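Ligand-bound model needed. NAP.
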Amino acid sequence: VNILLLAPQFECSDTWRIAMAAAAPDVAIVADGDVDSAVIEGALVDEPPPGRLQYCTNLRFILSLSAGVDSLLADPTLPAVPIVRLVNTEMSALMREYIVYQVLRLHRRFDETEALQRDRRWVWLSSAASAASRVVSVLGVGHLGRPAAEALQSLGFQVRVWSRTPKQIPGIRCFTGIDGLHTLLAGTDILVSVLPLTPDTMDILSEDLFRRLPVGASIINVGRGACLREDDLLNALDSGHLAHATLDVFAVEPLPDEHPLWRHPRVTITPHTAAYPEPESFVKTIATALTRIREGDIPTVVDRLHGY
Ligand SMILES: NC(=O)c1ccc[n+]([C@@H]2O[C@H](COP(=O)([O-])OP(=O)(O)OC[C@H]3O[C@@H](n4cnc5c(N)ncnc54)[C@H](OP(=O)(O)O)[C@@H]3O)[C@@H](O)[C@H]2O)c1
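Prediction:
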């Protein structure tokens, strides 16, 4: 099977290629231009050049290295073959670490302590509130959001989650629908979004949503930048309604030099690094996906209707 690799940011070393060849000996991972497009049966992609895959006339499946498939689905020429999301346990673990770390940082006011250190100020902030007194809400409880929500619950936080379809998770209050979202937001201290970007979630983190959060709430966005209206966020921070925003994803990446988010004193920025596992971690995931595709039991297929 020839699989075309179209993933400019995926750093596949020789070690990766050797491990891949050992895990899937009947598969050739080929670079663009190595073979005729007509002999390509699969594509391994992360942000592939729009329009390229339409020329693979015998394409049977697409393996997406990225958990977010919004840019892939935005290509109107994308062949109508199954798209498999290669979510692996390393990616879920990295996202869990990122979210737990950022929630704890806000919960224990370490963001403020870091600012005080920069001014060489030895100041005791008020005594730490208990985790049990904090409500942390997670929007999106799929492969990446759920492990983080469960870890936060195990640390003692009151955890609420929101998803498109109903969920039952022990010890966690689960919500769906717009009314469920509004109920969840009221009383939330820290809001975490791990939502995919779809027509329904675009701009969801906007003025209307921020207004429904209590004064002093904070937000963490690790889903997609276009789920958040950056101007609305800046207004909510400047008016004092929101206390802090921790952002890993942005409408335009890299975040432009002159963007006001860079210099905002109550914004923490990380460069889309929340959950970016090493290429080696994908070897087994890809090999397993290929075996299942061969057996006709295709895993984690993207639902094109819902956009994720
Ligand atoms: N920052 C990073 O480094 C990084 C890395 C990887 C991924 N990501 C982002 O994380 C996103 C989530 O990844 P994942 O693997 O967890 O995806 P997933 O398994 O597909 O889970 C998506 C979750 O969002 C919920 N959802 C989708 N549309 C919704 C809507 N309209 N209303 C309410 N809930 C909705 C889904 O609800 P159901 O459970 O009902 O389907 C599900 O719980 C990706 O799409 C990507 O954008 C970021």
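The pocket of NAP is lined by residues 67-68, 87, 140-145, 162-165, 194-198, 200-201, 222-224, 248-249, 272, 274-276, 308 (CB under 6 Å).
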